[in-house]
Design brief:
The protein is 29% helix and 22% strand. The protein is α+β, with helices and mostly antiparallel strands.
Length: 389
């Protein structure tokens, strides 16, 4: 059997018997007897974050594949492995879950494929080729425009897709995704947003774009995603901790985004993420911002109520503990934008695991459900527009 992580988004280290015994505390004989291949999480290229994995396994169809990530318990979010099942796909489109257990600090999963090659990942991989296809589809549409608003740390174009026309009372809606590269569900969600916005036969989209311009940045941390990082960009920066004072060299993605938002204006801002540990879809607001007001509190409540009505996968009972008044971290995107522009700004989180409220035994929280949630965001946005100013 062969293991390959040499592609965009790929990340894993195959351990030899000696290193596996040292890392996992078992002898080479015990490792051989288990039939498992010992693996290690690779850190981000310029920072010591370990969580994401993605690799292809090739061998004879019908051959049992068994893996043991020996250092999963030492990852950045070890709680993320509790009640978790690894993702697998033959073709990069249909992703399903495989039997997985987390014990004694090691993540173990197994599968007997019916085809020669299968990809395993922490979550469904979203490739740079798919991203480019999405940008190309938008660029070919008469209903969208694609602008390069800056470059990444490694010089890749940072693209924004805009929908709608500017007018004297136009509102500006921003949806950005995947500041953290391992949170690939954010790209799947943003794809759902873009594809629905391209459909002008959808009456809700026609109504939305009569009063608003919608700007979508479907993949902020492109370098990190291509490199197989989980949390940081190519320069080792957590981009969602860089908004208050972005370094134009180390965090050029956020430097460019801040300038674009300043130039266009913003009335509603959504930052799309994934959470490793919590098995729910939820939003985090700006209640800890110094400028948080009853108006913003009402907007947050109304928007999340409408999102719940549009997609029951969303819920409002479970999520992060609220920040104390005045204690928000203004280096985070939603907090910074909400405070700077006194606007509705939310962080949307989806699970790496299954949705505990609406479980899907085969797929868990899947790309398809991320896509559906993205489309529902536009229904909630339409209904909230009249309240934004």
């Amino acid at each position: 059997m062969e293991i390959d992580a040499g592609f965009d988004g790929g990340s894993i280290v195959v351990l030899d018997e000696e290193r596996a015994a040292s890392a996992g505390g078992r002898s080479p004989d015990a490792a051989r007897a288990s039939g498992e291949i010992d693996l290690s999480l690779r850190p981000d290229n310029a920072a010591d974050f370990r969580q994401w994995f993605c690799f292809k396994s090739s061998g004879d169809p019908g051959e049992r594949r068994a893996f043991r990530i020996v250092d999963a318990g030492a990852s950045e979010y070890p709680d993320g492995w509790e009640d978790y099942r690894a993702c697998a796909s033959y073709d990069g489109e249909d992703w399903f879950r495989v039997p997985t257990r987390f014990e004694d600090g090691a993540l173990r999963f197994r599968f007997t494929p019916s085809r020669r090659s299968v990809t395993f990942a922490a979550y469904a991989r979203y490739s740079i080729a798919r991203h480019r296809r999405l940008l190309g589809r938008a660029a070919r549409s008469p209903h969208a425009r694609v602008d390069v608003i800056g470059e990444t740390a490694q010089g890749r174009p940072l693209s924004m897709i805009s929908f709608g026309r500017e007018g004297p009372s136009t509102l500006h809606v921003w949806m950005i995704a995947r500041q953290h590269p391992g949170e690939t569900m954010a790209s799947w969600c943003a794809e759902g947003v873009v594809l629905r916005l391209l459909d002008r036969d959808d009456p809700a989209i026609s109504a939305l774009l009569e009063d608003a311009v919608v700007h979508v940045v479907p993949w902020v941390n492109i370098d990190g995603g291509v490199l197989g990082n989980h949390r940081t960009n190519a320069a080792g920066r957590d981009l969602n901790r860089s908004w208050d004072d972005p370094d134009p060299i180390a965090a050029p993605e956020i430097f460019a985004l801040r300038q674009a938002i300043r130039d266009q204006g913003v009335d509603l801002f959504l930052d799309i993420h994934g959470d490793e540990a919590l098995p729910y879809v939820f939003a985090a607001g700006c209640e800890g911002n110094p400028g948080f007001s009853p108006r913003i509190a009402t907007l947050e409540s109304d928007f999340t109520s409408r999102l719940l009505a549009a997609d029951p996968s969303f819920q409002r009972d479970k999520g992060y503990d609220p920040d104390a008044p005045g204690e928000a971290d203004l280096s985070c995107a939603a907090n910074f934008i909400g405070e700077r522009y006194d606007c509705l700004a939310l962080t949307l989180e989806m699970p790496f695991k299954d949705d505990a409220n609406h479980p899907d035994r085969r797929r868990g929280w899947s790309p398809g459900r991320s896509d559906t949630l993205g489309r529902a965001l536009l229904d909630a946005t339409l209904l909230t527009l009249p309240e934004l100013r």
